[in-house]
Amino acid sequence: MRVEFDEDTCIGMYQCVAEWDAFSKDKDRGKAILEGSEEEEDGIFAREIPEDAELDAKFAARTCPVDAITIYDDDGEQIIP
Ligand code: SF4
After folding, report:
1. Listed GO molecular functions (predicted)?
2. Quick check: 60 and 47 in contact, CB under 8 A?
3. Most CB contacts within 10 A, which of 26, 42, 50, 80?
4. How many domains in the chain?
Protein backbone atom coordinates (compact mmCIF):
# COMPACT_ATOMS: atom_id res chain seq x y z
CA MET A 1 0.00 0.00 0.00
CA ARG A 2 1.19 3.48 -0.86
CA VAL A 3 0.32 6.98 0.35
CA GLU A 4 0.58 10.28 -1.45
CA PHE A 5 0.42 13.62 0.31
CA ASP A 6 -0.39 16.79 -1.63
CA GLU A 7 1.25 19.59 0.29
CA ASP A 8 -0.28 22.38 -1.79
CA THR A 9 -3.79 21.14 -0.99
CA CYS A 10 -3.07 20.71 2.73
CA ILE A 11 -4.57 23.45 4.91
CA GLY A 12 -2.86 22.43 8.14
CA MET A 13 -5.80 21.24 10.20
CA TYR A 14 -3.68 18.33 11.50
CA GLN A 15 -6.41 15.72 11.89
CA CYS A 16 -4.05 13.35 10.07
CA VAL A 17 -1.41 13.81 12.78
CA ALA A 18 -3.82 12.42 15.37
CA GLU A 19 -4.52 9.34 13.23
CA TRP A 20 -1.09 8.26 11.98
CA ASP A 21 2.27 9.08 13.55
CA ALA A 22 3.92 9.28 10.11
CA PHE A 23 2.33 12.71 9.86
CA SER A 24 3.76 15.57 11.90
CA LYS A 25 3.14 19.30 12.09
CA ASP A 26 5.06 22.07 10.37
CA LYS A 27 3.45 24.91 12.28
CA ASP A 28 5.61 27.61 10.67
CA ARG A 29 4.31 26.71 7.25
CA GLY A 30 0.84 25.53 8.26
CA LYS A 31 1.38 22.20 6.54
CA ALA A 32 1.65 18.56 7.53
CA ILE A 33 4.88 16.62 6.96
CA LEU A 34 4.78 13.01 5.77
CA GLU A 35 7.82 11.51 7.47
CA GLY A 36 9.98 9.17 5.42
CA SER A 37 8.51 10.31 2.11
CA GLU A 38 10.13 11.51 -1.09
CA GLU A 39 8.93 14.43 -3.17
CA GLU A 40 7.93 12.70 -6.40
CA GLU A 41 6.50 15.73 -8.13
CA ASP A 42 6.28 19.36 -7.13
CA GLY A 43 4.55 19.32 -3.72
CA ILE A 44 3.57 15.63 -3.96
CA PHE A 45 5.20 13.45 -1.33
CA ALA A 46 4.89 9.66 -1.38
CA ARG A 47 6.00 6.58 0.51
CA GLU A 48 5.11 2.96 1.14
CA ILE A 49 2.85 2.16 4.09
CA PRO A 50 4.12 -0.57 6.43
CA GLU A 51 1.56 -3.35 6.88
CA ASP A 52 1.06 -2.60 10.56
CA ALA A 53 0.26 1.05 9.74
CA GLU A 54 -2.31 0.48 6.99
CA LEU A 55 -5.30 1.08 9.23
CA ASP A 56 -3.84 4.29 10.66
CA ALA A 57 -2.95 5.54 7.18
CA LYS A 58 -6.49 4.91 5.96
CA PHE A 59 -7.95 6.79 8.91
CA ALA A 60 -5.61 9.70 8.23
CA ALA A 61 -6.71 9.85 4.59
CA ARG A 62 -10.40 9.63 5.50
CA THR A 63 -10.18 12.34 8.10
CA CYS A 64 -8.46 14.92 5.87
CA PRO A 65 -11.09 17.59 5.12
CA VAL A 66 -9.54 18.56 1.78
CA ASP A 67 -8.51 15.11 0.48
CA ALA A 68 -4.81 15.94 0.52
CA ILE A 69 -3.98 12.31 1.38
CA THR A 70 -4.49 9.56 -1.19
CA ILE A 71 -4.10 5.83 -0.56
CA TYR A 72 -3.30 3.28 -3.29
CA ASP A 73 -3.42 -0.50 -2.97
CA ASP A 74 -0.60 -2.77 -4.13
CA ASP A 75 -2.03 -2.85 -7.66
CA GLY A 76 -1.84 0.94 -7.87
CA GLU A 77 -5.62 1.37 -7.57
CA GLN A 78 -6.71 4.45 -5.67
CA ILE A 79 -8.78 3.30 -2.68
CA ILE A 80 -9.11 6.52 -0.60
CA PRO A 81 -10.66 9.01 -1.14
S1 SF4 B 1 -5.64 16.47 7.73
FE2 SF4 B 1 -5.27 17.09 5.59
S3 SF4 B 1 -5.34 19.31 5.62
FE4 SF4 B 1 -5.08 18.63 7.72
S5 SF4 B 1 -2.88 18.66 8.05
FE6 SF4 B 1 -3.42 16.60 7.43
S7 SF4 B 1 -3.13 16.61 5.22
FE8 SF4 B 1 -3.21 18.73 5.86
Report:
1. iron-sulfur cluster binding; metal ion binding
2. no
3. 80
4. 1
State the Cα–Cα distance between residues 35 and 22, nearest whole angstrom: 5
- Taking CB atoms and a 6 Å cutoff, what residues make up the pocket around ligand 1? 10-16, 23, 32, 64, 66, 68-69
Q: Which of the listed residues 13, 28, 58, 63 should we mutate to test ligand 1's pocket, taking the one with most ligand atoms within 8 A of CB? A: 13
Q: Summarize pLDDT for 61-78 with one digit per residue, the tens.
A: 999 999 999 999 999 999
Give residue-wise pLDDT tens across range 14-59.
999 999 999 999 999 999 999 999 999 999 999 999 999 999 999 9
Amino acid at 78: Q
